[in-house]
Amino acid sequence: MRNLGIIGTNWITQQFIEAAEETKSFKLTQVYSRTEEKAQAFVEKLGKSNINLSDSLESFFASDDFDTVYIASPNALHFGQARLAIENGKNVIVEKPSTSNVREFAILDTLAHAKGVYLFEAARQIHEPIFKKAQEFVKDNQDELSGATLSYIKYSSRYDDFLAGNLPNIFNPKFSGGALYDLGVYTVYDAVVLFGAPNSVDYEAEILNSGIDGSGSLTLKYDKFDVNILIGKTKNSYMPSEIYFGKKTLLLDSAGDINRLTEANEEKKLTELPTTKSDNPMDSEAIEFARIMNEKDTTSYEKLFDYARKVNRVLEQARTSAGLVFEADKEE
């Protein structure tokens, strides 16, 4: 079991800690927050004791009581925090997207390989058994693959606040927010892992008055088919996602959090595929990240890292096509 430090005291951090400890992959030893009071409140919420607390990133990363850090701060903070972690010799698990742009990703790529540490992007759905079942179905029917429609549209709990005249991080270009860099990351990961990197990317976005995308549609073009992606944080949709194989279709109940896979044959008969799903969707990634580090499985690591590299490239290509600019893009 590896020792874990965390940055971010929100629900997703709690979920990862629970997954890490349920699977005996990581043990929480230190928590960073901007205030020690907030870190203490988080630890108490977890029902834990004897956890070191820090309100200074420098002292946090200088600590020798953890070797891996999980970062779940706002998007724009990922790069700086991950860079500091790597410079201090820590392995990094960072929530997706790991960076705001390709320039930042290339810097972390070079630094992590030079330092000999691991840098994981926490795309938890691609590690789940139910996603691997979909991946297996696509591989088995590769010759008939003829496109896909992926949908992940969910009304944000912060959108009402935005409509009231405030500027939550998720709708703020300063924090690299918006639909594409939130829900859209899931769909792009689906496409890259299942179909590979596209030849071209186009994003038609609904731009909010903050300069951030509230929703939109992407078209990823491949040699023989297109993948159409619908994303949004300003409305709700209950449309399933579909992968097409001529007369046959694979239905996914969600492009972001798959709970059910259904095959439709040419007679339109629906057959639900047998799958497994953990109560905690982060279990599988926690197990895999720890396994790769413990076994020094370079092959599996580089495969995951290449997915992250391609996803971040697609995200930037999509933003460029839609004219979306983050504050991070202006940094030298």
TrEMBL record:
Residues 3-120 form the Gfo/Idh/MocA-like oxidoreductase N-terminal domain. One of its GO terms (molecular function) is nucleotide binding. It comes from the Bacteria. This is Oxidoreductase. It comes from Companilactobacillus allii. The lineage of its organism: Bacteria, Bacillati, Bacillota, Bacilli, Lactobacillales. It holds the Pfam family GFO_IDH_MocA.
